[in-house]
Design brief:
Blueprint (H helix, E strand, L loop, with lengths): L10 H4 L1 H16 L1 E2 L9 H7 L10 E2 L9 H4 L2 H11 L2 E2 L5 H18 L10 E3 L5 H12 L5 E5 L15 H5 L1 E5 L10 H11 L3 E4 L10 H11 L2 E5 L4 H5 L12 E5 L10 E5 L2 H15 L5 H14 L2 H23 L13 E5 L13 H10 L2 E2 L1 E3 L12 E5 L1 H5 L4 H16 L1 E6 L6 E6 L1 H16 L25 E6 L3 H8 L12 E7 L5 E11 L2 E6 L3 H13 L18 E5 L59 H6 L3 E5 L2 E6 L3 H10 L2 E4 L4 E7 L2 H8 L12 E7 L5 E11 L2 E6 L4 H12 L20 E5 L11 E6 L3 H12 L14 E3 L5 E3 L9 E6 L1 H13 L3 E3 L1 H10 L36 H8 L4 E8 L12 E3 L5 E10 L5 E8 L8 E4 L24 E6 L7
Parallel strand pairs: 1-12, 5-6, 5-7, 7-8, 8-9, 24-34
Antiparallel strand pairs: 2-3, 4-10, 9-10, 11-14, 13-14, 15-16, 17-20, 17-21, 18-19, 19-20, 22-23, 24-30, 25-28, 25-29, 26-27, 27-28, 30-33, 31-32, 32-33, 35-38, 35-40, 36-37, 36-39, 37-38, 39-40
Helix pairs in contact: 3-13, 6-13, 7-12, 9-10, 14-17, 17-18, 22-27
């Protein structure tokens, strides 16, 4: 007998990985309470049909048209149908479809019989069961009945419509002229009179009725009247309520609407697919052709077979009872949540779904709970919902609501009493949430944390409730529905912590200095609650940077739950700082008891190390946190020691090139060579080279370097990868800006820190004092220092003491920079020229020791900085000029950064107004999720009352007096709404600047005025003005986008 090539065996044997995925998903669906209105659990019989042999065949085309009027018994009369197939064939492109014809005909007939209404019998309906889902079904209607560009009316997505009803992101919104209708803002119900007015105004060819999140039934006759009034075709998209319609608990549009579309996998409890029904013969053929071959190829006959099963079940009394109870449960849940104080948009529901307005919950900073954060926190508790836009929202990316549905939980048998319990779980958990905002690049980022014990309580209650409900999957897949996390017994054990951020995670979670461990080493440690009380003591052992074993002598179950919640990042970890979040995520698993023998605890290992922060540390007395209670002194910046101007290694070259020199930050520096405008244009159009060797270049190295910089700077140094750089700030303990800087990670334990020339001595003194534990870092805990100082070193790479490692900075900026740098490296470092294709913020080190980064402060994306030995700097600068770079001075650097919207220390940062990064519009570089950085408390306190931010402006009139720092910006009523911080000319002769503005005056396009040069203007005495007196005249100013768009 010939050997075949059939794969025999079960999925457990042939693909255990996918088998496990299926098992895990099955358990998830069993254990969780799924409240997504568009999901349901498909009966086992439907799933069986879905995996049948019908999956194996192609069947492009349709059954015979005459089969539409056959009864179910006639369709299944094999003695008649099979000879008919052999004699007449069918409308398919493939043979072997005789049974595909029968099962598709059966599904069509069952759908016709189930949905026949409004005076139309099943024989009068034309049904297509081939669409693969709702979107292809609706697109087929568009293709069949419309031309591209035709006008379509559909419900606004934000008010309950669907993506395919005209969303700009969808094909419907891109190819057709969409007119959206909505709801009355007072009643939050559809205003059918207004719908008629819109239709008469816009004369659509197609009107769509149907919704994805509007919780009340449609009035189909009103839709019909509107469509008839303007000669439009009416499409009823009832995807979400098809099951309710089949059971008679929702109005049936068949026979009223010209076309009815619905998906089969929502309330209909069928397989994924869709159905089109029309009573109009003139549309039926068009719809069939639009589905195939218009929208898709061969139908999924296995899905159609499964649909036939689902339609049979939908005709049963059990199904009708299910849908009736679904509506009752949804209404009960809405009433329960409303009684708990939550606003229910639209005032309730008479369908299977309801909405919840999360804005009812606000945090201390005024942030409202977002739909996204609420959905994520509920999911952790075993309650699966989806975020949802509600009336009043302006972006689908920032929904403020939740959409809750009763279909799945009703299938599982939940009743009114269970719904009341469910409502309390939801309300209790959401009320335990604390919303807050992080600083985003464009707008604040809404976040939320939840109380850990409230989360555990919700998990337990939801699992208990789920355990009482029915399932139809294999018993052996059922997981334990009793959560062990509230068990606070004395049992100890070992946890395995795995992940890329495992070391950083445990260092922040535990009381000991985890950073100090090397592979194979152990230390005594403790895990605290956020209140500072002991949860468990034990030992931590490092196997590698990505794997640790944590032995705890008690409360192992709660400890595991606490660590998992901290890894998820949604449980509050600091009683005083809601934004604090540990690095992560990590994987946490309990290990067998015999793992204990692998762990040893050094006798001299302190259980609580002197650390700047760890969980619970802010609630511990000073004497118990590992530090002496004696406070450290405040930092005092050093005074200047000399008035003598310094020179960079390129000074003689500047004189040779004819530069205009002037004092700047203690150095004699070139302001310009030819002209500011020419040098500005060179950078934008070609390439310019700058001497920035006056900038401070510091090195922080060693195993403690990352922790040191992470605790001092506002950005996330721990997440900075080798070969990348980040922009950041140094703040003092009161939140004032010490400097803005760039941090480059050259190796795992080696960082380059570039600071402003004017701040070099101050920053070196600050870093040195912090390194020596000689200055206060936190007014609330003035005795604390940064741990690991003994494991790191500081060096000033411009100082003579750095010897051969000395480095100074040259900046090469502009669109031709890469080509010029490539040519330079071909001369100086053959074989490394191709490496200059760095990503933005990337950094590399050449074999000769040059450090090259793709960074700069001109706004150019093709930009480089070269950190070179001082004795090579002048020669490299000259070679860059020979290769085509234009030498540029500091005046052009200033005009370029102003045009690019970038802040400068002393003007948009610090300065007379003591502006901080948020004032400057660069708050996104302040990572408030870090548990600690110097100045964080003060920064947050100031942020709560901040009402200003820097904006970019253009002076509309050319040839006028340039604006100067300090000049007032006024509105049309003469009210001062801003203060100029910087202004310079661009290559086109426009005056472009930055100004600190009231929030209400920052909108792009706002027309204002500025009193340019006001510091030099004479005061006005109204009593002494006469004819001929000259008064200051403001110049027109226009707010523009903070960062210019460039091609």
């Amino acid at each position: 007998m010939n050997k075949d090539f059939l794969f025999r065996g079960g999925i457990d044997e042939l693909d255990p990985a996918v088998a496990e995925l299926i098992q895990r998903e099955t358990i998830r669906q069993q254990d969780k309470l799924i409240l997504i209105p568009s999901e349901s659990t498909v009966p086992f019989a439907v799933r069986h049909a879905l995996s049948s042999a019908f999956h194996n065949i192609y069947a492009e085309g349709y059954p015979l048209e005459s089969a539409r009027k056959l009864s179910q018994s006639d369709i299944l009369d094999y003695a008649q149908r099979l000879p008919e197939y052999r004699r007449k064939a069918d409308l398919r492109y493939y043979k072997g479809t005789e049974y595909a014809n029968l099962v598709e005909s059966l599904a069509r007939r069952r759908a016709a019989e189930l949905f026949a209404a409004n005076g139309y019998s099943a024989d009068q309906l034309f049904v297509n069961v081939q669409p693969l889902s709702g979107a292809p079904a609706n697109n087929a209607v568009y293709s069949a009945l419309l031309d591209v560009g035709d006008t379509v009316m559909g419900m606004d997505l934000f008010m309950g419509g669907h993506l395919t009803h005209g969303s700009p992101a969808n094909r419907s919104g891109k190819q057709y002229n969409i007119v959206s209708y909505g709801i009355d803002p007072r009643s939050e119900r559809i205003d059918y009179a207004r719908l008629l007015e819109l239709a008469k105004e816009h004369r659509p060819r197609l009107i769509i009725g149907g919704f994805s999140s509007y919780p009340f039934a449609a009035y189909w006759q009103a839709y019909r009247e509107v469509a008839d009034a303007v000669g439009a075709t009416l499409l009823a998209d009832v995807a979400h309520v098809a099951g309710l319609i089949a059971a008679g608990v929702y109005p049936n549009p068949v026979g009223i609407a010209d076309v009815v579309s619905f998906t089969t996998h929502k309330t209909l409890n069928g397989p994924r697919g869709a159905v089109l029904i029309t009573h109009r013969r003139d549309l039926a053929r068009k719809l069939d052709r639009a589905v195939f071959p218009g929208e898709q190829g061969g139908p999924h006959i296995n899905s159609i077979a499964a649909l036939a099963v689902a339609l049979r079940l939908a005709a049963s009394e059990q199904f009708k009872q299910l849908q009736r109870q679904t509506v009752v449960n949804a209404a009960r849940l809405a009433e329960k949540l409303a009684a708990r104080g939550w606003r229910i948009p639209h005032g309730g529901t008479d369908t299977h779904l309801l909405l919840l307005d999360c804005k009812s919950r606000k945090g201390a900073d005024g942030t409202a709970l977002s739909g996204d954060m609420a959905a994520r926190i509920l999911d952790l508790a075993g309650l699966v919902v989806n975020r949802q836009t509600i009336p009043g929202d302006t972006s689908a990316f920032r929904p403020s609501g939740l959409r809750l549905g009763a279909p799945w939980i009703t299938q599982r048998g939940i009743d009114e009493a269970g719904i009341d319990q469910l409502g309390d779980i939801i309300a209790d958990l959401l009320e335990a949430c604390e919303p807050y905002s992080l600083m985003g690049r464009i707008r604040p980022l809404a976040r939320a944390k939840v109380d850990f014990d409230a989360l555990l309580d919700a998990q337990q209650r939801s699992r208990d409730l789920s355990a009482r409900l029915g399932i139809d999957t294999e018993d052996e897949l059922r997981s334990s529905n009793s959560s062990p996390y509230l068990d606070e017994g004395a049992e100890g054990g070992v946890l395995q912590i795995l992940g890329e951020r495992a070391a950083d995670f445990l260092h922040g979670a535990l009381t000991s200095d985890v950073d100090a461990l090397r592979d194979g080493q152990s230390q005594a440690t403790s895990l605290l609650e956020l209140t500072g009380s002991l949860l468990a003591a034990g030992t931590v052992r490092r196997l590698s940077k990505q794997e640790f074993h944590l032995y705890l002598r008690g409360n192992i179950l709660r400890a595991r739950a606490w660590l998992e919640a901290l890894s998820d990042g949604l449980a509050r970890m600091d009683a005083d700082d809601v934004s604090a979040t540990l690095p992560g995520p990590v994987s946490i698993a309990r290990l067998p008891a015999d793992t204990l023998s692998e762990i040893d605890e050094p006798a001299d290992s302190p259980r609580i190390a002197g650390k700047i922060t760890f969980i619970g540390s802010n609630r511990m007395p000073a004497g118990e946190s590992g530090w002496s209670p004696a406070p450290l002194p405040a930092f005092e910046p050093p005074l200047a020691t000399t008035d003598m101007l310094l020179q960079t290694p390129l000074h003689s070259l500047h004189r040779e090139f004819g530069a205009k020199l002037a004092p700047f930050a203690g150095y004699e520096m070139p302001l310009w060579y030819q002209s500011v405008s020419a040098e500005h244009a060179a950078v934008r159009e070609s390439a310019g080279v700058f001497d920035v060797a006056h900038m401070g270049v510091l090195e922080v190295s060693g195993r403690g370097a990352a922790r040191f910089l992470h605790s001092l700077t506002t950005n996330d140094v721990l997440s900075l990868r080798v070969g990348r750089s980040q922009y950041s700030f140094l703040l003092d303990v009161d939140g004032a800006v010490l400097d803005d800087l760039l941090v480059y990670r050259l190796a795992e334990g080696r960082f380059l820190v570039v600071v402003n020339a004017s701040n070099n001595d101050k920053i070196w003194a600050w870093l040195s004092a912090v390194h020596e534990c000689a200055v206060m870092l936190d007014r609330e805990h003035p005795q604390r220092c940064i741990e690991g100082r003994e494991r790191m070193q500081l060096r000033d790479l411009r100082a003579e003491s750095s010897g051969a490692d000395r480095r100074v900075d040259i900046a090469l900026q502009g669109p031709r920079s890469r080509d010029i740098l490539h040519s330079l490296l071909e001369r100086t470092h053959p074989g490394e020229a191709t490496r200059v294709k760095l990503p933005w913020s990337g950094v590399m080190t050449t074999q000769g020791g040059w450090i090259i980064s793709r960074t700069g402060y001109t706004g150019e994306r093709v930009a480089y900085e070269l950190f070179l030995p001082p004795d090579e700097a002048a020669d490299v600068f000259r070679q860059l000029v020979d290769l085509g770079a234009v030498p540029c001075g500091l005046a052009a650097r200033d005009s370029l950064r102003i045009e690019a919207g970038l802040p400068l220390y002393g003007q948009e940062l610090a300065g007379d107004m003591q502006l901080n990064p948020a004032d400057a519009g660069f708050g996104s570089f302040v990572k408030l999720y870090k548990p600690f950085f110097v100045g964080k408390r003060a920064f947050i306190k100031r942020e709560r009352s901040r009402k200003h931010q820097v904006s970019r402006f253009v002076l509309d009139a050319r040839g006028g007096r340039p604006a100067q720092p300090g000049d007032p910006v006024v509105n049309a009523r003469g009210r001062v709404v801003g203060t100029v911080t910087s202004c310079a000319g661009d290559a086109q002769g426009n005056q472009v600047g930055l100004a600190l503005m009231d929030r209400g005056s920052r909108k792009v396009g706002t027309q204002l005025e500025v009193y340019a040069g006001s510091a030099r203007a004479r005061g006005i005495n109204a009593n002494k003005t006469t004819i001929g007196t000259r008064l200051p005249v403001p110049q027109p100013l226009r707010i523009v986008s903070r960062f210019p768009k460039r091609g």
